[in-house]
């Protein structure tokens, strides 16, 4: 692996227009985009203005096809297994809609699944009489794999759903081990990789997932309004299809008949924001040029330093639990208001995110937390910025 040099960091920051405007530690929300991503989008929007949307899409056909190639290559898949989506949530819900649930079927999920996913599971339990069972956690955090195997053996669930990394915590779940168990017990496996895509290397073969959903705006540094869905060959060969495919995903073959496409694009809609498709491809190309292993190393080093420094300050409670931690650091001050702390950081030009209890209900109940400040460094952040953030917290604590 190529070492990370000061020159490399300087180049990444030079490629990032917003890097010197603030200490941007909200990359788990939306990272700062590099120039190449902005350029890909603005050039296509300009072309649409000059010749029209359909004509611009036709001219950009090679670049649009490249989106599927580079995204697939990034996760060890094939282009035919990738579908463009407007968000990770749309991708996730499209996958859920394809699972043939019947009354009494079981969904196994984790204690740390994303809030929108939890809401979808609850709706399925109400509308389709599906049983929702949450897998117990280990005492130190993270899904208990022995408990999962026992639940698989007893309940034979239709679906196992795991959020690879929660939105509110540094926890990285052992998604590959979950996938191995799902294969052993023949359950569909849906992996939410919203926070890990772009943060660490992903290999769908090693993960054994049937579906993988992700977004581009977070650690991949792409545009908002863009995501993707990966579908395994097992999904395609089983004929799983989304609820309400359109004329892009299916062909009307008779008055009362249609046939879905034979690739993952059966999950897509015909209308797409092609500027965002091209911007997403540029984001993947930029990350690939750096290398996901280097990105992972840099992010985890910055996050570990931030976590250690802030945890040493009096009154700050570190909320991160688990055997493997990534680029999200979550903290709370039991005797302060979350919105007040967020405002203090904003005033010092430090970008953060305030996570409230209803966004991670089970996790916050376990940790007895009403809120958390989420700080999420990226590879273009510096250790000097980490130190400045620690000093800012020190001054804030004095005001308390």
Can you tell me about this structure?
The chain starts with 5 loop residues before the first helix and ends with a helix. It is 44% helix and 15% strand. Strands 2-8-7-6-5-3-4 form a 7-stranded mixed sheet, with helices on both faces. Strands 11-12-15-14 form a 4-stranded antiparallel sheet. The protein is globular and about 70 Å long. It has 400 residues and is an alpha/beta fold. α8 (175-185) links the parallel β5 and β6. α2 (35-51) crosses α3 (53-59) and α12 packs parallel to α15. It contains 15 helices and 15 strands. The longest helix is centred in the last third of the chain and has 20 residues, at 292-311. The chain folds into 2 domains: 6-33 and 291-399, Aspartate Aminotransferase, domain 1; 37-289, Aspartate Aminotransferase, domain 2, CATH 3.40.640.10.
Uncertain segments are none
Oligomer: single chain
Whole-number total of structural domains: 2
Percentage of residues assigned to helices: 40-55%
The CATH superfamily of the largest domain is known as: Type I PLP-dependent aspartate aminotransferase-like (Major domain)
CATH topology of the largest domain: Aspartate Aminotransferase, domain 2
Report the biggest beta sheet as strand number plus sense, adding barrel if it closes. 7 strands, mixed
Shape: globular
Q: Please report the total strand number as a whole number.
A: 15
CATH class of the largest domain: Alpha Beta
Calculate the terminal CA-CA distance, rounded to whole Å: 45 Å
Overall pLDDT: 97
Order of helices and strands: HEHHHEHEHEHEHEHEEHEEHHEEHEEHEH
Q: What is the CA-based Rg, rounded?
A: 22 Å
What is the count of DSSP helices, taking H or I runs of 4+ residues?
Answer: 15
Helix-strand makeup class: alpha/beta
- Order of strands across the biggest sheet? 2-8-7-6-5-3-4
CATH architecture of the largest domain: 3-Layer(aba) Sandwich
Strand content: 15-25%
